[in-house]
Amino acid sequence: MVAATRDEKEFRSEQQYHEREWIVQRLGWAAMAIFIAIALVGGFGAGPLSERRVGDAAVATLHYERFARYSSRSHIELTIASAARSHGTVSFELNESYLRDFELESIVPEPKSVEAHDDRVRFVFDASATPATIALDLLPERIGGKHAVFRVAGRELRFDQFIYP
Questions:
Q1: Strands 67-69 and 60-65: what pairing?
Q2: CA 136, 148, 40: angle at the middle one, nearest 5?
Q3: What is the pLDDT of residues 96-126, one digit of tens each?
Q4: Model pTM score
Q5: Listing from the earlier edge strand, what are the strands of the sheet with 74-80?
Q6: How many helices (H) and strands (E) does the chain have?
Q7: Residue 62 — pLDDT band, cuts 50, 70, 90?
Q8: Composition of the chain by helix, strand, coil, percent to 5
Q9: CB 123 within 8 A of CB 111
């Protein structure tokens, strides 16, 4: 039996190093693939994992994004059924704490009036379309979890949203 030479010892040491490096490299590739897959399905913004709908079509439905980005427009669409109309108007209320974390860029159609009550804001619209669809474009101004409560015809539509940096 011949003793291992210095070159053979270095080769084995380098081989072990490279084998460990390959394992770490493959783990990194797997982590990147998982990250990309989550992004593609909407885990970090728009996509099927992020898009949600709450409510009852008989009264109102609310379409929103569960995940949004700080300083990027977030779109909310509220559809109010004709059963929720009152005296030729359609209205909804939104909790003020939710609105404080966003800049309301636009609301279409334009509300007939906007009224502040205790901890909520009430938006009133002319009821010309059946059903009434109201689109809100909001710009998140704070990072983190947000909780929204829309009140339509005595019903509450609640959802949670997370704003990424």
A1: unpaired
A2: 70
A3: 999 999 999 999 999 999 999 889 999 998 8
A4: 0.73
A5: 51-56, 60-65, 74-80, 132-140, 102-108
A6: 2, 11
A7: very high
A8: 25, 45, 25
A9: yes
